[in-house]
């Protein structure tokens, strides 16, 4: 027979164990970030989670070449514009889109997809992209950049850029 003190202590330890594991999982999530700016008369925003380098090799290892990537961490990255835009010479209607990328060593494909709100990956780690919902795909060239620990998006009058590790991926938008 257990003492009346032993049972509550076991419950307290069980609760502490659960709370510790939940808080560790929460800390493992990359922080949510946003970027907002004007491109011409359009207001553009990007909602994303920002992973960190943490001493890892990013391009070609953590983020494989030639495979669809969610262009951030956690949930799919969301790109929103309140006006029609021209992205790398192609029309993108006003609206919200999931933003994906296919990184390559010398060229990237940037994908604007009409499905939003989905987790960034499927079970097994593959990007959660339904290609039937692709609205626009453009090819861009990455450029060398100063070391950036946390992935960021920049928005300016020339377009957007994904910046992470020692790479910058500019996308021309009018």
From TrEMBL:
Top-level taxon: Bacteria
InterPro entries: DUF2911
Name of the protein in question: DUF2911 domain-containing protein
